[in-house]
């Protein structure tokens, strides 16, 4: 049987080599898998090409950058160098100039802000201001990125002639209104204002405690006087 089978295979190979018979695919499934891999590989190449083209468009300033998923911001824990009062003041300022009420300050809103502060900037200057703290590359300022301006300013990381440095400098509170003297910057003024406020609250609390103590002593004296009256009746 083995000899007959071998003889049959040799005869068949001779016929194929002489062109008398077409060869038959031995590994049918292997060929099928290979053909199925081609569309998959083509799809992967197409997807990679689309991503590369998208990135090139963003680098050239074309197209709109998609907003990445952002974690919820807690400014009080992330920006511990600032007091709650300072952060609330910055938030108030941010919302004042967020004309669109979308929780972002875009190029036009920043333009109006700088004009309002008395330091108008060129279009390129405004773009550079945003770029310096625009971590998510969406060409606008979130509240967190707005806080980064003041963090960099407090750390001395802003160039003196930069638009952001001007913004931070012009954002100082009116010390005459707050009653704080000798404050050089927004932060120094707020720290002094908070200290004055805390001292004032402490004095009020002490006065309230003193009045409460006096009322309690009056009650004790009245009770003692009534007991004395009852003893003579």
TrEMBL record:
Protein name per UniProt: EF-hand domain-containing protein D2
Residues in domain EF-hand? 85-120, 121-156
Classification from the root reads:
Eukaryota, Metazoa, Chordata, Craniata, Vertebrata
Q: Which gene encodes it?
A: efhd2
Cross-referenced SMART domains, in alphabetical order?
EFh (SM00054)
Supply one GO molecular-function term. Answer: calcium ion binding
| Regions annotated as coiled coil | 190-221
Q: Which domain of life is it from?
A: Eukaryota
Query: InterPro entries in the record, alphabetically?
Result: AIF-1_EF_pair (IPR049025), EF-hand-dom_pair (IPR011992), EF_hand_dom (IPR002048), EFHD1/2 (IPR040365)
């Amino acid at each position: 049987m083995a000899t007959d089978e071998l003889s049959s295979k040799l005869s068949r190979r001779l016929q194929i080599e002489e062109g008398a018979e077409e060869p038959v695919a031995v590994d049918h499934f292997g060929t099928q898998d290979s053909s199925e891999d081609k569309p998959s590989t083509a799809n992967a190449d197409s997807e990679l090409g689309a991503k590369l083209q998208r990135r090139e468009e963003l680098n050239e300033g074309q197209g709109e950058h998609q907003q990445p998923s952002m974690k919820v911001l807690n400014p009080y824990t992330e920006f511990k160098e600032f007091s709650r009062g300072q952060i609330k003041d910055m938030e108030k300022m941010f919302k004042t100039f967020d004309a669109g009420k979308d929780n972002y300050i875009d190029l036009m809103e920043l333009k109006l802000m700088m004009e309002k502060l008395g330091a108008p900037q060129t279009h390129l200057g405004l773009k550079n201001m945003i770029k310096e703290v625009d971590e998510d590359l969406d060409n606008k300022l979130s509240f967190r990125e707005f806080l980064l301006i003041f963090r960099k300013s407090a750390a001395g990381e802003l160039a003196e002639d930069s638009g952001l440095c001007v913004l931070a400098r012009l954002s100082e509170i009116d010390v005459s209104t707050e009653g704080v003297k000798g404050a050089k910057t927004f932060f120094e003024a707020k720290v002094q204002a908070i200290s004055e406020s805390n001292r004032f609250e402490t004095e009020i609390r002490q006065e309230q405690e003193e009045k409460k103590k006096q009322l309690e002593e009056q009650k004790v004296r009245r009770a003692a006087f009534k007991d004395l009256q009852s003893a003579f009746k």
